[in-house]
Design a protein that fits this description.
This protein has 12 helices and 4 strands, in the order αααααααααααβββαβ. Helix 12 links the parallel strand 3 and strand 4. Helix 1 runs antiparallel to helix 2, helix 4 packs across helix 6 and helix 6 crosses helix 8. The termini are far apart.
């Protein structure tokens, strides 16, 4: 069957049926079919693929498709796909992610894969990414405590039924930066009081 016809069938089928078509094709045809599919088509198919088929697809994708797929899937899915990316192709994907996306991805990876991603990341991004990752961890902790958290520029607004507090979470800070940032956020948002989250 010609690639164009196969691609049309995959696009017009429900995800599970489309994934079945993809998994049934010979491995040598996968790169041509994957290249002809749009990233949005691939993002739709990935959850329906079995783990080995996902790995085969990820390894068959060209660099531009690979980045679009990794950045287009939900974070939990990206954390599953990144370990499947060949080492020599991981660097450009990590370089293309925003600091916030990279911080969120690192937070969802097991230690060995986290180290693998950090080893190809630009060292100049380390501080910003670590700060964002720490902020995400503080946010998750506050949400687990039944607080409503809204990220605001360099801080966060924490609310409950009676009050609003500005929080600045700064990794490795002794309070000099975090207190100033929390006070600035509190002033802008007219909150009850500033707070900081030291490491």
């Amino acid at each position: 069957m010609p690639v164009t016809q196969l691609v049309a069938m995959i696009r017009n089928s429900p995800p599970r049926s489309a994934a079945g078509l993809l998994m049934a094709m010979p491995a040598e045809r996968l790169p041509a079919v994957a290249a002809a599919l749009r990233p949005a088509d691939l993002v739709r198919l990935i959850p329906a693929l079995k783990p080995e088929a996902r790995r085969g697809l990820i390894q068959a994708l060209g660099p531009e498709h690979l980045f679009d797929v990794i950045s287009g899937v939900p974070l939990a899915e990206a954390a599953v796909l990144v370990p499947m990316v060949p080492s020599e192709r991981l660097g450009p994907i990590v370089a293309g992610l925003s600091d916030g996306a990279l911080a969120a991805l690192l937070g969802g990876l097991p230690p060995d894969q986290r180290q693998r991603v950090e080893s190809v990341a630009d060292p100049r991004r380390e501080r910003q990414v670590r700060d964002l990752e720490y902020g995400d961890a503080v946010t998750r902790a506050l949400v687990r405590g039944n607080f409503q958290v809204t990220r605001q520029d360099d801080g966060m607004l924490v609310t409950n039924a009676r009050w609003r507090i500005a929080v600045a979470a700064r990794h490795g800070d002794d309070g000099r930066v975090a207190v100033r940032d929390a006070e600035d956020t509190a002033y802008k948002l007219r909150t009850t009081a500033p707070s900081r989250c030291p490491t």
